[in-house]
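Key result, reporting period 2: structure in, sequence out.
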């Protein structure tokens, strides 16, 4: 770390004010902040914090809704731990520092004619923050960002640096790809990449009954299928992304701005603000909103198709269910909204993922459907989320690690067959709980 970052030999600087997440619902007041620029500086900061009796957490860009990164000890800020370290075209991998934002990784890969196979729908997060909490997109055959990791570097509780892959420390690799920050601080990640390709996106409205009636077909026929259902209506907007031979045909500058900025952000922001002030108008606004977005088709490089700007701030809860429970759970969710007094201005997002082998992945061992519910920031959300959560848990749902939920270790041990494997690994790597906080005590136990 730079000399100006170190005060009194403490291995960090005093915070200028509280740390807050993107949604504004989590605040932390760390005793100390460190901004390491290398793995060696990160390891030194961890050793110093341990010697001083401080717990340690790393925070990325704060896009988790849970207090996963909150600490009153040492907060690691990764804004100087960034950049691509190696590109290996022969093995099809890229190695990147843990604090690198996904948007920077995507653009750098594109400049080298490379791409991740799949990604989520925003790219503001750091690579380590996104993978540690299970960020995912939608895919028939391709899984979460963490599932694309082929190796990683982890600073553990004694300040040592552990390299992990399927061949090197494989038992740690199985847990650390999606480790919740519970095993150590990730300093470097290696991802599988491939030559950049084109995706053709086909977006079109579709009635709720048609989407649910054809759900299995739509998932099977498309590499990446997702849809949004607008509560208080029978309307959905679908998106199908499939590889294309080209040529590239991106959205026009004007039409793209109208769809992605004016309607999806600007007008939607106004509609949410009005709905927050006068909840009774939300169903009417929803009926109008669900008919505004028109069908369109465009072809572009992956990150420009998978990701979109999200400027309207909200609270979110997402659950991963067994794929076969998708339609039943959706219909129960629709009935809940119709039979209650809830006024929901945000659409419900539905995505899928294939089974993977990550110990704490929400898709671990089972083909998965994701159901995400949102409420505009500043709007009461707990009753709605609580009612939705009862539906999700009745279907053995697994909550997204970075999104709001109330589940605890006892529940999670019942829906993750390898839960005990992860907690045993945690006991081995961090027996003194240097990397713990309130959230980890909730979801993993003491």
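The corresponding designed sequence is given below.
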């Amino acid at each position: 770390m730079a000399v100006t970052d170190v005060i009194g030999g403490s291995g960090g600087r005093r915070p200028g004010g509280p740390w807050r997440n993107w949604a504004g619902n989590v605040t932390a007041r760390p005793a100390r902040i460190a901004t390491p620029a290398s793995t060696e500086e990160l390891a030194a900061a961890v050793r110093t914090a341990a010697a001083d009796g401080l717990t340690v957490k790393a925070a990325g860009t704060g896009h988790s809704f849970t207090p996963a990164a909150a600490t009153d000890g040492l907060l690691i800020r990764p804004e100087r731990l960034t950049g691509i370290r190696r590109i290996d075209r022969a093995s099809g991998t890229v190695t990147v520092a843990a604090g690198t934002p996904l948007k920077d990784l995507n653009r750098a890969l594109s400049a080298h004619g490379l791409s991740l196979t799949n990604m989520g729908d925003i790219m503001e997060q750091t690579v380590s923050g996104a993978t540690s909490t299970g960020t995912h997109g939608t895919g028939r055959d391709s899984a979460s960002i963490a599932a694309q990791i082929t190796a990683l570097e982890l600073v553990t509780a004694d300040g040592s640096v552990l390299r992990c892959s399927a061949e090197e420390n494989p038992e740690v690799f199985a847990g650390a790809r999606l480790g919740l920050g519970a095993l150590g601080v990730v300093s470097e990640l290696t991802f599988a990449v491939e030559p950049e390709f084109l995706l053709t996106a086909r977006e079109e409205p579709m009635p709720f009954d048609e989407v649910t009636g054809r759900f299995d077909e739509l998932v099977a026929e498309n590499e990446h299928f997702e849809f949004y259902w607008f509560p208080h209506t029978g309307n959905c907007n679908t998106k199908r992304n499939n590889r294309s031979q080209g040529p590239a045909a991106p959205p026009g500058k004007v039409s793209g701005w109208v769809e992605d900025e004016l309607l999806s952000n600007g007008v939607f922001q106004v509609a949410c603000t009005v709905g927050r002030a006068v909840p009774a108008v939300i169903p009417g606004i929803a009926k109008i909103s669900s008919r505004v977005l028109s069908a369109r088709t465009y072809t572009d490089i992956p990150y420009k198709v998978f990701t979109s700007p999200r400027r309207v701030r909200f609270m979110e809860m997402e659950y991963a269910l067994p794929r076969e429970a998708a339609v039943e759970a959706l219909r129960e969710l629709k009935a809940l909204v119709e039979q209650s007094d809830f006024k929901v201005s945000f659409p419900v997002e539905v995505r899928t993922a294939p089974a993977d082998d990550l110990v704490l992945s929400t898709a671990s061992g089972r083909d998965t459907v994701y159901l995400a519910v949102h409420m505009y920031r500043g709007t009461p959300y707990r009753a709605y989320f609580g009612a939705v959560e009862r539906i999700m848990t009745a279907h053995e749902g697994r909550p997204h690690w970075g999104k709001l939920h109330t589940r605890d270790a006892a529940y999670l041990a019942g829906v993750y067959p390898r839960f005990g494997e992860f907690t045993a690994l945690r006991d081995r790597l961090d027996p003194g709980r240097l990397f713990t906080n309130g959230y980890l005590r909730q979801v993993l136990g003491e």
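Residues 184 and 257 are 42 Å apart (CA to CA). The longest helix spans residues 253-277. This case is discussed further under Risks and Mitigation.
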